[in-house]
Amino acid sequence: MLCHPSGDESFHQAEGNPFDGLKDTGKKVSVGRFLPPVMPQDIICIGLNYRAHADELKLPYPKNPVVFMKPTSCTAAHGDPIAQPRVSEKMDYEVELAVVIGRECKDVTPEQAMDYVLGYTCANDLSTRDWQKVPELSGSQWCRSKSFDGFAPIGPVIATKDEIADPGVLRVQTFVNGVQMQDSSTRDLIFNVPQIISFLSMGSRLLPGTVILTGTPFGVAEGRKPQPWLKPGDVVAVEVEGIGRLENTIVADKSSSSCFYVAQPKL
């Protein structure tokens, strides 16, 4: 574990670069504020990758991974407040297992893929469903709906590859204000971690520090009746077995109202 927390939230201090090797100094330090465990080179996301999630949305299983990206400006840390965008009323949570690439790779097979993994962290692929589902807003793609500031919180730590024997058997959960909303396992993935890495590496380099979000399971607000959209004051926590708990509070957007505004069609 890179910066493994004990019960008193103290950490072992390490020296070096996680991509080249770390050395435990033997010193313990307390945590003032969490930072993202890695500043991503790229944030690459896989959509519709859990069978039960596709079922709840009444969508067919994809034949190949559904790929989209988030800008690195979306990155947020454990404990960071995240603003609900003024232009959205349908903000949703998505717990995800995130894979951190440790070595540059290109054109690797699924059998080779795990050799290039540094480790894993928790992610919340925050989304605005109005911007995702309405063509006049989305442009018929998902990127904008998932690219608002703070919409890619990751953390609190990276569990190194040697600590996660099998990323395909991990429990993943979401809690909103203490109420469990998602509870599944990466056993339900349509495309597993090696398959995802291999697919993304075809003709494209994956650089050290690239973060890959592997999809979200059943239980998102969009699939529920009524739909419990996130709102200011909500505390959202996502957990991945063997890694930890990533928690953020949703706050009101206090940015200037003088920005360009798109009238939202009625759904």
Secondary-structure map:
Layout: E1 10-17, E2 21-30, E3 43-47, H1 51-56, E4 66-70, E5 75-76, E6 81-84, E7 91-92, E8 95-101, H2 110-113, E9 117-124, E10 127-128, H3 129-133, H4 135-138, E11 152-160, E12 171-176, E13 179-185, H5 193-201, E14 211-213, E15 235-240, E16 244-252
Structure description:
With about 270 residues, the chain is mainly β. It has five helices and 16 strands. It has helices spanning about 50-55, 110-115, 130-135, 135-140, 195-200; strands spanning about 10-15, 20-30, 45, 65-70, 75, 80-85, 90, 95-100, 115-125, 125-130, 150-160, 170-175, 180-185, 210-215, 235-240, 245-250. Strands 4-3-14-8-9-11-5 form a seven-stranded mixed sheet, covered by helices on one side. β1 (about 10-15) and β2 form a beta hairpin. The radius of gyration is 18 Å and the shape is globular. Mean pLDDT is about 90; it is low at about 1-5.
Q: Overall pLDDT, averaged?
A: 91
**Helix percentage:** 10-25%
List how many beta strands DSSP finds.
Answer: 16
So how many helices?
Answer: 5
Largest beta-sheet characterization: 7 strands, mixed
Q: Reading side by side through the largest sheet, how are the strands ordered?
A: 4-3-14-8-9-11-5
Q: How does the overall form come out from the CA principal axes?
A: globular
Strand content: 25-35%
Quickly describe the structure.
The chain has 267 residues and is mainly beta. It has helices spanning 51-56, 110-113, 129-133, 135-138, 193-201, and strands at residues 10-17, 21-30, 43-47, 66-70, 75-76, 81-84, 91-92, 95-101, 117-124, 127-128, 152-160, 171-176, 179-185, 211-213, 235-240, 244-252. The chain is 10% helix and 35% strand.
